[in-house]
C-alpha cells in the first residue's frame, strides 16, 4: 500500500484498536490495484497483505484491477461489497487472477484463519492501518444503514459493480433467429429508430440491486381524476405504499436505503444508484401529508442530507438539459411543505435551519419562482430528429 496519513492518536487508543479492531487479510492482490475501504483508497504496493485496526461495524470494501505497467497500467471498473466486522474478526481473501476479483472462500476455512491469527504479529508490517481520518465521515454517511438493510439491498452476487453485467433479452443462437432481427447497416432517420435497432439487454441474474420499487402510478387503483391530481401534488400515498411493502416494521430504514444508494454512487461509481437516490428524495420531499404524520422520518432525512450534500460539488446536480438544479427544485417543495400547517414545530425549525445552511453554503435560491427552472430550448445538429 502506498504511504498514507496516519492520524495522531493516543498510544493506548492505538494499542486497543490493534487488539480489538478487525483485520482484512487480502493475499496476492496484484501490484498497482486500486483498493480502498470506506472513504479512502490506495494503490497496492509490493508488501501489501491487508488492512488492520478496522473499527467493528459495517464497511465498504472496494477495488479496481489494473493492467501491469508494461501493458499500459489502465485501471478497470470498480467493484465493491459491504462487509460487517466484529471485534477481533479476521476476514481472509485471495485474489483470483482469472476472475480479477477477491475470493473470500478461504474465510470459511477455520484452520487457515486460525493459522493467520496465530501469525498476526508477523503479518503486521504488511498490514496498512485503517484510515481513521475518514471514520467520522464514514459514520455520518452510514449511521442509518444497518447490516440487514445493506444485505437485503445489494445484489445476490454480493458484488456492487460500476458497470452493469448485462446479457441480451433474446438469445439468438441460430442464423434464422438473427436474420429476423432489424437490420442495423443503414443510417437511422431518428433517435427512436436508432434505439429500436439496438439489442434489448437485461441484467445478468443475481447482479440486480434489490431496491424498493417506486410505483409509476402514484395513486390508488380506481382513483378519480381529482384524486389522481391530488396524489400527483402530494405523493404521500406512493410513499406509504413503498414503506408498507419494504420497510413496514422499520420505516426509518428507508433512510438507510438512501444512504446505501448514495455510498454506492459516491464511492462505488454506480450511476444507477444515484438515480434511485434521486427518486427516493423526490418522493420524500413531495409527500406533504406524510411530513405531518412522520416527524422522525423527516428529521432523519434532514440529517442524512446534511452530510450527503457536504460530499459533492453543488453544481453536480445541475441538469445539463434544462440547466436547472434538481436539488433546488426538489428541496423547494420540502421547505414549502415543512412550513405549512400541521407540521411539528421541531421539524419546521430544523427545516428552516437546513434551508439557511444550504443557502449560505451553496448560494442556492429556494425562494425563486419555479418558472426560473423552465427548460432551455436547444438547437439539435442538422439531420438529427427526436420523436
Automatic annotation (TrEMBL):
One of its GO terms (biological process) is spliceosomal tri-snRNP complex assembly. The keyword Membrane does not apply. One of its GO terms (cellular component) is spliceosomal complex. Belongs to the AAR2 family. Component of the U5 snRNP complex that is required for spliceosome assembly and for pre-mRNA splicing. CDD domains: Aar2_C, Aar2_N. Keywords: mRNA processing, mRNA splicing, Spliceosome. Residues 211-367 form the AAR2 C-terminal domain. Residues 20-155 form the AAR2 N-terminal domain. The keyword Hydrolase does not apply. It comes from Gymnodraco acuticeps. PANTHER family: A1 CISTRON SPLICING FACTOR AAR2-RELATED (PTHR12689), PROTEIN AAR2 HOMOLOG (PTHR12689:SF4). Transmembrane segments: none annotated. Interacts with PRPF8 (via RNase H homology domain). Component of a U5 snRNP complex that contains PRPF8. This is Protein AAR2 homolog.
Amino acid at each position: 500500500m502506498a504511504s498514507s496519513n496516519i492520524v495522531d492518536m493516543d498510544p493506548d487508543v492505538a494499542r486497543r484498536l490493534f487488539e480489538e479492531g478487525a483485520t482484512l487479510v487480502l493475499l496476492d492482490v496484484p501490484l498497482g490495484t486500486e483498493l480502498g475501504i470506506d472513504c479512502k483508497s490506495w494503490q497496492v504496493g509490493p508488501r501489501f497483505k491487508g488492512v488492520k485496526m478496522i473499527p467493528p461495524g459495517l464497511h465498504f470494501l472496494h477495488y479496481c484491477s489494473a493492467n501491469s505497467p508494461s501493458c499500459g497500467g489502465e485501471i478497470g471498473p470498480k467493484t465493491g461489497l459491504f462487509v460487517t466486522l466484529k471485534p477481533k474478526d479476521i476476514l481472509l481473501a485471495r485474489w483470483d487472477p482469472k476472475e480479477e476479483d477477491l475470493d473470500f472462500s478461504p474465510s470459511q476455512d477455520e484452520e487457515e484463519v486460525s493459522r493467520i491469527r496465530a501469525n498476526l504479529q508477523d503479518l503486521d508490517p504488511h498490514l496498512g492501518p485503517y484510515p481513521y481520518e475518514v471514520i467520522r465521515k464514514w459514520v455520518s454517511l452510514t449511521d442509518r444503514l444497518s447490516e440487514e438493510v445493506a444485505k437485503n439491498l445489494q445484489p445476490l452476487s454480493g458484488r456492487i459493480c460500476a458497470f452493469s453485467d448485462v446479457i441480451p433479452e433474446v438469445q439468438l443462437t441460430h442464423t434464422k433467429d438473427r436474420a429476423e432481427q432489424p437490420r442495423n447497416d443503414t443510417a437511422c432517420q431518428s433517435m427512436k429508430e436508432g434505439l429500436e435497432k439496438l439489442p434489448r439487454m437485461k441484467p445478468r441474474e443475481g447482479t440486480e440491486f434489490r431496491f424498493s420499487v417506486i410505483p409509476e402510478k402514484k395513486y390508488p387503483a380506481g382513483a378519480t381524476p381529482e384524486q389522481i391530481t391530488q396524489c400527483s401534488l402530494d405523493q404521500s400515498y406512493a410513499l406509504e405504499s413503498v414503506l408498507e411493502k419494504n420497510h413496514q416494521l422499520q420505516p426509518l430504514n428507508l433512510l438507510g436505503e438512501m444512504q446505501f444508494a448514495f455510498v454506492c454512487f459516491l464511492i462505488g461509481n454506480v450511476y444507477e444508484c444515484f438515480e434511485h437516490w434521486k427518486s427516493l428524495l423526490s418522493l420524500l420531499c413531495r409527500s406533504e401529508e406524510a411530513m405531518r404524520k412522520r416527524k422522525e422520518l423527516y428529521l432523519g432525512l434532514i440529517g442524512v442530507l446534511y452530510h450527503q450534500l457536504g460530499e459533492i460539488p453543488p453544481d453536480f446536480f445541475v441538469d445539463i438539459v434544462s440547466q436547472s438544479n434538481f436539488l433546488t427544485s426538489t428541496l423547494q417543495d420540502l421547505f414549502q411543505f415543512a412550513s405549512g400547517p400541521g407540521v411539528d414545530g421541531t421539524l419546521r425549525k430544523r427545516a428552516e435551519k437546513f434551508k439557511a445552511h444550504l443557502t449560505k453554503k451553496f448560494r442556492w435560491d429556494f425562494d425563486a419562482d419555479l418558472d426560473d427552472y423552465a427548460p432551455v430550448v436547444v438547437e439539435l445538429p442538422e439531420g438529427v430528429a427526436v420523436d
